[in-house]
Write a structure and sequence with these properties.
By secondary structure, the protein is mostly helical. Helices cover about 60% and strands about 0% of the residues. The protein contains 24 helices and 4 strands. It has a 4-stranded mixed beta sheet with strand order 2-1-3-4, covered by helices on one side. Helix 2 (about 10-30) runs parallel beside helix 19 and helix 10 runs parallel beside helix 13 (about 215-230). The longest helix is centred in the N-terminal third of the chain and has 26 residues, at about 85-110. It is globular. The termini are far apart. The relative contact order is 0.12.
Length: about 475
Amino acid sequence: MFKFIKNKSFYADFFLIMLAVVEVLAFLYNTFSWHLNIDEREHLYSSYMIYNGYMPYRDFFQHHHPLLWYVFAPFLIWFKNSHLIWYVLRGFGVVINVGILYFIYKLGKFTGLNKKEAIVGGLLYFLFEAVWSGGKEFRPDNLGILFFIAGIYYFFCYVEKTDFRKLIVSYILFFLSFMTMQKIVMSLIVMGGIILFLPRDNKNIKKELGWLVVPICGILAYVGYMYFEGALKDYFELNWLLNLKLTVAGILYRRTIFIVPVLISLICVCFIKSSNYYCRALIIMLWAQVAIVLWYAPYFHYFLPLYPFLVILIAYVSKRLFDKKDIIIFSFFIMAGIGRFLYWFNSYYAVHLSSFVRLTKVELSLSDENDEIIPGDIWTGGLRKNALGYYWYGWSVSLLDYKLFKRHEFPDINKIIKEKKPKIIAHIDAVMLGCLNEKNEQDLGNCKTLQKIDKSLLESDYMVSDFIYLRRY
């Protein structure tokens, strides 16, 4: 069968296109159906706060870099009071993924892949579980990856034709990637090493270093802005001190799950003996990502920066070892298809995005735009101000050390309720799954997940379980 396909390029291409279409449609279905992640609510809330004129770090808790929220905040002009916001977020993520695939394709062509092979390299991005989980979500990682690999592409364009305009664009994109997520700094250091030390005709190295003034000015401008806004100390504590306190204990299983792409990386390096500057640069970057995730990767989405480089090199090795044999390409897509089928099968009874959309509709209908809400840990709103104040979700509070952090605003739930009288307490308890899966919106509104506050019953017992931990600090 495969021999017949190999000899008939038209059928081979058609089969490949069909597999690609199925894979893309499957990814889109998953994107707009799979449940909401708590991080997405976190980043929507931050966009909402910025839209309403608040300053990150100074006015509300955050421990990520802010560019994603500034980019998305203008969308709230149209969707600041809409339960459809979750579909908008996921659609925004799809656009980012299209950009990632585009630059994977462009970088693949620098390694010597033809158009078809570079496209296949891009589509192999959907092969990995982390892309199907964190890759579809509204989080800084995906936008940061887009800026970073776009920066590498424009640097390669500069190397190809010594066009300093491309170099400036590259540096700006690297700066934007850093402003999107601070952990990209390790990859930027590796990229700096590639620029300085990977052999090439770099007679213009002094000019290249001189143009670093562009991203440096950008960083200094934002640091100055935070300083004059009184947010610089908070920024340093939350983006660096707090994140350094995150533990990596007990997460070895996450690394174990990803041993397959690491082994593929090893195989890639064993078979690649190329004098191509761009190929060698991507190999170095791939191994840097492997080292980073083996050293520190507490959550699945930390693995995402590895895959753009991995899929390019998989396509490159496939070309070298199986030149003009489409069977290897089909095998990857078939593996991906089987994996996705099992993923859907296992998640059949899970809470889907549409349920969170309906729940948000109820939340918004029970409150006005200026109302404050007391959330549970997986509160789905994100479009109302949080009554808990500065620290608005619990795990971060538990990591704080009084000796390192100047903030001491640890909330007392009863005091907050009595003083602010929030209209809604979004309490999440054991009945959440059944509640969210209800198809009747009227039943959903009466569910214990959402409680409209009776001001005469401020001490009612439904306010206890999820918030008791707040009093420990």
